[in-house]
Design goal:
alpha+beta, three-stranded antiparallel β-sheet, 12 helices, 10 strands, elongated
Length: 321
């Protein structure tokens, strides 16, 4: 790993930026954008309605829309109520600026058709309420087992300074979240060790950033997500865990393919990563690579000395015989 300093972190961040650019140029990313572009963009008012009824919603669409995408609403699912435009054509009589009807050559009022905007209550459904064709929306779960997540939770709870890190059943597609009101972290149960570890670090990064009100206020929602996932990538990379398949996609989505969005977050990413890595090394007993090599060298040297001593004893015994 090498000794921890800012230059190490900046090197990893550069590899992150290079990886994101490479991913952005790939056909896989273009396919994801084509899929996401088909989703309807809801108004602010409807976004509030959706979140108030289903806070965990991610991708929403009508039943007709989902059918066109090769997916179908599960039996028994209730629609999320939204306000839908319902325009209609109305014939109106023309009048002059004094309110008098304008007549045609036959003495009849002239008319015109106007588009009248009206609204009605409609239903939309979150992707978690559907089944069918797998869509390329990015961020497929990471695969990797063999990590000690139980002890890891205990340590990260202390680093995140939260009341609890708990596993729960989450069915909406989210991997977890940090709740600043209750000051806890919720992680989706049943994920691989690698995905679970990365998600805990992601949410810990949120907690660390939000612990400083002034810093937290300087970033918008997208930037907070860029910071948290970038920190997760950097920390995991530091400990030889590769999350690039997930992280590049996730960061790209929140950055909207805009490099300047990532650049605005670099200092916070570096600072938060260094903070978390230092505490993890200390609390988990992890050591920089140079220290490990030194211990191995000393250990091997002692074995050689013992071996030589043992050999000398054997020679002397032969001489005595």
């Amino acid at each position: 790993m090498g000794e921890l300093d800012l230059s190490n972190i900046k090197t990893i961040i550069q590899s992150l930026k290079d990886g994101i650019k490479e991913y952005r140029d790939s056909d896989k990313f273009k396919e994801m954008l084509d899929t996401m572009a088909k989703f309807y963009r809801y108004s602010y008012g409807n976004m509030i309605l959706i979140m108030s009824q289903r806070p965990t919603a991610t991708y929403c669409g009508s039943m007709k829309f989902w059918n066109s995408m090769g997916r179908y609403v599960k039996r028994g699912e209730k629609g999320i109520k939204i306000i839908c435009p319902a325009p209609y054509i109305q014939t109106v009589e023309l009048a002059d600026n004094k309110g008098r009807l304008i007549l045609d050559e036959n003495g009849k009022p002239k008319t015109k058709e106007e588009l009248i905007m009206s609204f009605k209550v409609g239903n939309t459904f979150d992707i978690s309420q559907t089944y069918g064709k797998e869509l390329n929306l990015g961020c497929k779960e990471l695969v990797g087992e063999g990590l000690n997540t139980k002890d890891f939770f205990v340590v990260m709870k202390e680093i995140a300074n939260v009341n609890e890190i708990k596993l729960e059943t989450i069915e909406n597609g989210a991997k977890g979240w940090f709740n600043p009101i209750e000051n806890n972290i919720v992680i989706k149960e049943g994920m691989s060790d690698l995905q679970t570890t990365k998600t805990v670090i992601h949410e810990t990064a949120h907690s660390v950033v939000f612990s400083d009100d002034e810093t937290a206020k300087t970033f918008n929602r997208s930037q907070h997500e860029i910071i948290a996932e970038s920190v997760a990538y950097v920390v995991c990379k530091r400990f030889n865990l590769d999350t690039s398949d997930y992280s590049f996609n996730y960061i790209n989505g929140w950055a909207h393919s805009n490099d300047s969005e990532i650049e605005k977050c670099i200092d916070c990413i570096a600072q938060t990563s260094t903070n978390i890595i230092s505490k993890m090394e200390n609390k988990l007993g992890l050591k920089p690579e140079l220290e490990v090599k030194k211990e191995l060298y000393n250990s091997n040297s002692q074995k050689k000395v013992k071996s030589r001593c043992y050999g000398n004893r054997k020679n002397k015994q032969k001489e005595m015989k």
